[in-house]
Design goal:
The chain contains 14 helices and 24 strands. It has about 425 residues and is α/β, with parallel strands linked by helices. α1 packs parallel to α7 and α6 packs parallel to α7. The site of uridine-diphosphate-2(N-acetylglucosaminyl) butyric acid has 27 residues, from α1, α5, α6 and α12.
């Protein structure tokens, strides 16, 4: 990626004040393709205004749907004339979640030709479990020069046991199975909040999904679904990133519009570090604590510590008192931020999939380059706590998943801006 601007942060200023979190990225990217499962219009509210959302809207238009998007308010999708079933690489390379078009188009018309997805390079990220699920529903799958071609007329419900817990696989099979004949049971299903949110959205369209949020999901297929008006849940990872940034700057920040129960694994670790965290129904306050203790973290599927917060948390631990370990169990290459953190003075060693962090008293601003979305979040956190100026290159990765991040941080008192290169 060659991006035409850079982010400049002068660190050391405590974040102070109140902020409202945006709608969830990983929910939004599932709910938008879901609108293709009906011929009736749907309205989706609380979408984050981010690149992944923009890319999906362009894909829906390319397939023949009409859309009306008012950022910050709603997206209306009119899918009646969405007759296309082919999504080329020029679209899918822009986001990982383009693979949800496979499930949504199979559900819509029993036929999908979707190029393999792009997205952040954080590991090998195969989609064999998604394809195994479609095959179990009766689809024939062909791999044609970078295109996955799936056809199923009709699809029939089946028992599907995933070899590992997969968020994308669970969502993709749900999207297809809601229109299959008969009952599908997904065993070893993912339990992340966005799985529950997608199930709620699909059920509001007339689908019959039970058990979302547990590891067994039962879906009774229906021949047609209707349109919906649906509000996506707040972003769990943006909430977590803001909590970490508040702790990193020894700030005092109240995050509104979030769901505190989604944040329990992070809250527990921050409390263990000695950071003060308090909760209300839909807000979390993170308060100053001079000394922060080192902790050990292992990423896990929900409700464990999310891999998406591993990188920003690693940045925070760079200045904790003592030696921390961070073990990444989900994506084997989610470590590209480490070299950049070292440039800023962090003492870090990578041993297999475990990062050993020796806390330092100070970090220093430096020119650093973003390699993936959450690496970008880690570098922003590091920039906020470092002395002097950090220049962050390849900011487009950050814009894939964070809405107006520098505006939000500026409103909390951060010295952060963008500049054209
Ligand atoms: N896996 C397979 N085969 C499959 C599917 C997954 O081997 O068919 C493996 C993966 O390689 C990985 C593990 O299973 O080692 C889990 O992958 P999962 O399918 O759960 O991840 P994903 O669907 O590719 C989504 C999010 C990620 C988030 C992970 C884990 C979207 C678009 N992406 O990815 O979000 O890290 O779940 O929670 O929802 C991000 O937001 O920065 C991000 C990368």
């Amino acid at each position: 990626m060659l991006c035409k601007d850079k982010m400049l942060i002068i660190g050391g200023k405590p974040l102070m004040g109140e902020i409202t979190v945006s709608g969830g990225k990983n929910t939004a990217v599932a709910v938008i393709p879901a609108t293709l499962l009906s011929d009736e219009p749907s309205t989706i509210e609380n979408l984050p205004d981010i690149e992944d959302v923009h890319a999906l809207i362009e894909i829906l238009e390319y397939l023949g749907a009409k859309t009306e998007y008012v950022p910050g308010k709603y997206l209306k999708v009119f899918p009646e004339k969405a007759d296309g079933c082919n999504v080329p690489f020029e679209f899918t390379r822009r986001l990982r979640a383009s693979y949800y078009l496979l499930g949504a188009l199979l559900g819509r018309g029993g036929h999908a030709e979707v190029a393999y997805p792009g997205g952040c390079e954080i590991g090998s990220r195969p989609i064999d479990q998604h394809l195994k699920g479609f095959a179990a529903l009766g689809a024939t799958i062909e791999d044609r020069g970078g295109l996955v071609c799936a056809k199923a007329e009709p699809m029939t419900g089946a028992d599907i046991f995933f070899d590992m817990v997969t968020v994308g696989g669970t969502i993709n099979v749900m999207l297809a199975a809601v229109k299959a004949q008969g009952t599908t049971v997904i065993y070893n299903a993912a339990k992340e909040p966005h799985i529950v949110d997608l199930a709620n959205c699909l059920n509001s369209m007339g689908a019959r999904i039970k058990g979302a949020g547990t590891d067994v999901i039962r879906i009774t297929g229906k021949p047609s679904l209707h349109g919906t008006v649906y509000t996506v849940i707040p972003d769990q990872i943006e909430t977590g990133t803001l909590m970490i940034a508040a702790a990193a700057t020894r700030g005092d920040v109240t995050i509104h519009g979030c769901i505190p129960t989604h944040m329990e694994s992070l809250t527990a670790k921050l409390l263990e570090m000695g950071v003060r965290v308090s909760e209300n129904d839909d807000s979390i306050r993170v308060r100053p604590q001079y000394e922060q203790r080192a902790v050990n973290i292992k990423t896990q599927v929900y409700p464990g510590f999310p891999t998406d917060l591993q990188q920003p948390m690693t940045a925070l631990l760079c200045m904790a008192n003592g030696t921390s370990t961070v073990c990444e169990t989900i994506f084997e290459q989610r470590f590209k931020h480490l070299d950049e953190l070292r440039r800023m003075g962090a003492h870090i060693k990578l041993m297999d999939r475990t990062v050993l962090i020796e806390g330092v008293r100070e970090m220093y601003g430096a020119p650093v380059t973003v390699t993936d979305l959450r690496a970008g979040a880690a570098l922003v956190v590091a920039g906020l706590m470092a002395k002097g100026m950090t220049e962050i290159y390849e900011t487009a990765y950050i814009d894939r998943g964070y809405e107006r991040i520098e505006e939000k941080l500026r409103s909390l008192g951060a010295d952060i801006r963008r500049e054209k290169i």
